[in-house]
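re: ur question from yesterday

yeah so i grabbed the chain u mentioned. its 425 aa long if i counted rite. heres the sequnce exactly as i have it in my notes:
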Amino acid sequence: MVEYRRRIVDDLLDELLPEMAAVALEGAKGVGKTATATQRARTVYSLQRTHQREVLSAEPEMINDGPFPVFIDEWQLHPPLWDAVKTAVDDDPSGGRFLLAGSADLPPGTRIHSGAGRIDRFTLRPMTLMERNFETPTISIGKLLRGEPQQIRGTTQRTLRDYIDEIFRSGLPGIRDLSPKVRRHRIQTYVDRLAEKDIPAAGGRIREPETLKAWITAYGAATATDASYETILRAATPGQSEKPDKKTVMRYRDLLTRLFILDPVPAWMPSLAPLTTLIRSPKHHMVDPALPAHLAGIGPEGLLRGERNVLAPDGETWLGALFESLAVQSLRVYGEANQTHVRQLRTKGGRQEIDLILEDWERNTLAVEVKLAGAARNEHVKHLNWLQEKVSDGRRLTRMVVTSGEQAYTRADGVLVAPLALLGP
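ran it thru and got these structure tokens back, copy pasting raw so excuse formatting
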């Protein structure tokens, strides 16, 4: 039996589950929801098993029999169970009663209670670099946000090739430790199953799965960009006179978002520090950079040679986009462990762009630029310094450049510089 690797969400569950009657873990297939919930459950119902699904469909009250916590896996395969849990929590709101896991949101029009106030939701993403035991972190994102003292020090021996290896291995627990050949097969199967099985199971009608797979590939090629959906569609259908219409493309987007495969970073729109030229559109990312890396057909050596993704802006490499996505994947989890909103900032005309803005409930803010470089140069920090000049609403603002280098340090202008490997929650 494979040994369970403790996840960052486990710390949150240790702290919060005793006070929460029901917790739903959401996320793409393969991120580890079932393994995490099973660690705590005393009763497990897996709705992927036809018999268990039929039994609970006939007698949903069985979930009250315990022993608790009761774990209902892939609950979305029988949506009325969500309401059954909600009713059970209404009757007994004591903590630690139910765990639910789902790898797809419900189709529009499915009528269930929102669960607000009864069922607390957490998103589980692929493993962060810290969870992969890539390196021992020396810098806490939470302390940076709260302004708690910590030394911005530390070195890592991890190289650019190590980061590239992590991009291709993925953060999916059941895939990352396989041999490269088997891993490539599993990732391709993962994408094929999305188009041919998972989307139809989630209520989506796909007439031409190959067209959808081409669109997924093109979306992946837009990783870490704000390319328009029209641009993505053109990349997915080169030379085709008859292309899917906008309604179809938006349906692709919505279906893949419901399956947690698309994971775009929303725009930052601060209410108390209005910046009038901000762009509201999201920045494209997939749930794991291993997916676009595999679909692009550019291997590790091609990345090192600087081969480009056709949707990357001029002067930017495919490796740079994938490294940014790897950083975003980990930093989102570190930030959310500290109850932050994770956003990004771009102004009209692309004059200013900041890769990540982490903001907690007290408006403590961490602005992050991700750079494929060993150290931070002046051009890497100019947008961070611009933001410091513009934000004057009294918030604590910390500026940081995340690099692929070896050394953590603080620049003379106060900007922190940290290798991605040295960051943790």
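noticed a couple things. The chain has two domains: 8-123, 139-424. also The chain has 14 helices and 13 strands.
anyway ttyl
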